[in-house]
Amino acid sequence: MDCKKALAEGDGDVDKAIEYLRKKGLSAAAKKAGRIASEGIVDSYIHSGGKIGVLVEVNSETDFVARNADFKQFVHDVAMHIAATGPTYVSRDEVPADVVAKEKEILSAQIAEEGKPEHVVEKIVEGQVAKWKKEICLLDQLFVKDDKKTIDQVRTELVAKIGENVTIRRYVRWELGEGLEKRKYDIAADVQALLEQ
Amino acid sequence: MDCKKALAEGDGDVDKAIEYLRKKGLSAAAKKAGRIASEGIVDSYIHSGGKIGVLVEVNSETDFVARNADFKQFVHDVAMHIAATGPTYVSRDEVPADVVAKEKEILSAQIAEEGKPEHVVEKIVEGQVAKWKKEICLLDQLFVKDDKKTIDQVRTELVAKIGENVTIRRYVRWELGEGLEKRKYDIAADVQALLEQ
Hints:
Strand content of chain A: 5-15%
Distance between the termini of chain A: 74 Å
Order of helices and strands of chain A: HHHEEHHHHHEH
Strand order of the largest sheet of chain A: 1-2-3
Shape of chain A: extended
Radius of gyration of chain A: 24 Å
Number of strands of chain A: 3
Oligomer: homodimer
Mean pLDDT of chain A: 83
Low-confidence stretches of chain A: 32-37, 181-185
Largest interface: A-B, 66 and 66 residues
């Protein structure tokens, strides 16, 4: 009854309904309503004594497959591969349109700089953008342990072998110290130091 | 010279200068200009065969300390602690103002619901918000391996022992399957199922 009231109070908005349940002290119900079922494993790979760390989640359909040795090996290989290559996205669909536009702009300028005539620049850029996408997307990358196959081909072979779908859902890859906020003048100082070399 | 030109072209904006260097094909210089020095290690902890995974970065001042056994033990303990307790932030300063405001609103409603008189609600809420912040912030949490100390106390002891500052910079903690996008009607169906129990 509390849930029905919660949904009514929140005008059918589930977030509001959960908030209403929490306010009423019915957080157990709120938790259950938000719970999601999914199988697979989260695995990690630490490279060169802690200079690079990777966390990856790979989903399977059943917990049975998540405990399969081939599945586990695949997940660990993927974590190691990510540490080695540092992809930016899992798949090509994830590359945002504005990132593609910016890359096109940079490549166009680069190629124009090389003195190529304007009418061939666009064609070259199209080819380079396609190549660039393959380089930065995990599924399109050549597997570091067997460079005859892409990661997606290795995944497909695993799916065929175990008879269940397998999805590389998400990963993070950290390099020690990267992305630490540096104030603009610190970077300007680095550029200055480069000038003086 | 390219760097000076790059900064001039970008009107002193470093991001634009790096973009300019890349366009000119001088990406090696661009990379160097953006490079940041920092020591420490990235470590991970995987719990219960892959149901929970943690990646953590802890910074030290020198690489010498990063290879110290006490430092390494501390980092691994912190990763394990995060897996166990699931903090939301590293420190109290990181809790956003709007998150605090929302929590206050929920707690106020909860306490009012209990029939407490209005003039005591605010006082109780203040106390509960302070307690809540301590619960969700890693540094304030009681260390799972020694609940006489907070994580920050353990960190301070390490700093005193090794004579160098130590910072828990960032972490991620994933539970298998959490946060998978569920369409609203799926959650509504869950709420419906709860109603019918």
